[in-house]
Amino acid sequence: MNTRELIDRFEKGEAVIGIVGLGYVGLPLILTYGKKKFKTLGFDIDPKKVEALKAGRSYIKHIPTARIKELVDSGSFDATTDFNRVPEADALLLCVPTPLNKNREPDMRFIVSTAEGIGPHLRKGQIVVLESTTYPGTTDELLKDILERTSGLKAGEDFVLAYSPEREDPGNPNFDTQRIPKVVGAMSAEGLEAAVALYRAALDKVIPVSSTRVAEMTKLLENIFRSVNIALVNEMKVVCERMGVDVWEVIDAAASKPFGFMPFYPGPGLGGHCIPIDPFYLTWKAREYELNTRFIELAGEVNTNMPHYVIERTASALNAHKKPLNGSRILVLGAAYKRDIDDMRESPSLRVIELLQETGAEVSYHDPYVPRLPKMRRYNLDMESVALNAKSLHSYDAVIIVTDHTNVDYEMVVANAPLIIDTRNATRNITTGRDKIVKA
Ligand SMILES: NC(=O)c1ccc[n+]([C@@H]2O[C@H](COP(=O)([O-])OP(=O)(O)OC[C@H]3O[C@@H](n4cnc5c(N)ncnc54)[C@H](O)[C@@H]3O)[C@@H](O)[C@H]2O)c1
Known about the structure:
- There is one protein chain.
- The protein is of the alpha/beta class and about 450 residues long.
- The protein folds into 2 domains: about 5-200, NAD(P)-binding Rossmann-like Domain (Rossmann fold, 3-Layer(aba) Sandwich); about 230-440, NAD(P)-binding Rossmann-like Domain (Rossmann fold).
- It is built from 14 helices and 15 strands.
- It has helices at about 5-10, 25-35, 45-55, 65-75, 110-120, 140-150, 190-200, 210-245, 245-255, 280-290, 295-320, 350-360, 390-395, 410-415; strands at about 15-20, 40-45, 75-80, 90-95, 125-130, 160-165, 180-185, 205-210, 330-335, 360-365, 370-375, 385, 400, 420, 435-440.
- The strands form 3 sheets. An 8-stranded mixed beta sheet has the order 3-2-1-4-5-6-7-8, with helices on both faces. The chain has a 5-stranded parallel beta sheet with strand order 10-9-13-14-15, covered by helices on one side. It has a two-stranded antiparallel sheet with strand order 11-12.
- α5 (about 110-120) packs parallel to α6 (about 140-150) and α11 packs across α12.
- It is elongated.
- Bound molecules: nicotinamide-adenine-dinucleotide.
- Nicotinamide-adenine-dinucleotide (NAD) binds near residues 22, 25, 43 and 273.
């Protein structure tokens, strides 16, 4: 396959960039290519998202509607549910979900259905890049097989097949998609050249690697590294608390070492679409090679126990006030999995709420970005965010800070709530009322 023409189209900014899966990963890619004046075509199976985007509306808090609207109005971005339009794109970047199933094994349904959706419409001379996080071998086994079978074309001969992990960090003001270095691996040297040209056209830095499997494993290593280190500080937190030492102060002090230490912070448990899930993609694949991933399992165990730890700390703090958890009125502050975003996928808040309800506590939550907790895959909480003010705070027996959104007035929370369980050290700078704060 002559990839020269494709590379030229990327270098001249003439290529149409197709993004499949218009979510937290796909939309920032649309904006990034849009900024470089590329035409973009978004595909999604959810007609509601497509409708909103076509009307110039963002449905994700940190992705500004104004930027989507600008692209739609200028005619450089269109969104569709119609896979017949696949041939219009020169590149197809697949950004679909890769969750775990009930048995905590990779759920490849979305990758399979995407491949089956685009395969029949694939044409010669296109490049397909998988961006979803997954186990090594997904691109050159699973994806390749489906695309070749459904298109009648050959990867590496008729079209380029590559893998490039997504490192998007939603809401991070210092690193947007353009500034995050992009690792990419392809199935041939020529294909890699095309893949590098595709990303170089819009991103500041591209790091080519020797295969799709290296690129797939790179992403897993990054997220396993985070999961293991978070588990380590969570374990340290429990030990420190028992010994009467403030783990946060310890971490800050250790972070003064200019080499060989990188701070990670404890919390109420892991959340989000990546860290609690991705490591288990490797665990599953390693079994095929008769290997156990013990660090991953241990980190999972420690991190999964954190919401239970928060409940235990809450129960003992209430006990000191001569109150049982059963029947107590508890406010959970924050539903999103991390600060200043509206994403509550896998959020530890949900588990904390569920565990509190199981004990018989009367639970409410407040989150400025999550007005409702709808029915989700694992949770069926069906709750609405309640008001947060001095009067309402007095009516609770305890407030548990699970997400440390920056626009919450923690001084007001401490001044008015009878008891505060702080899982994020959000109250670190508050000087009055410290005797009411319990760290967990
Ligand atoms: N969210 C993050 O911050 C982040 C960061 C790095 C990597 N990732 C990885 O990126 C991938 C995508 O994650 P996300 O957070 O963007 O997910 P998301 O749920 O926000 O978006 C995925 C989109 O894909 C659509 N979709 C599902 N099946 C489809 C199909 N067959 N054809 C077309 N569209 C389809 C869904 O409707 C949805 O809009 C996952 O593998 C995730 O692990 C996510």
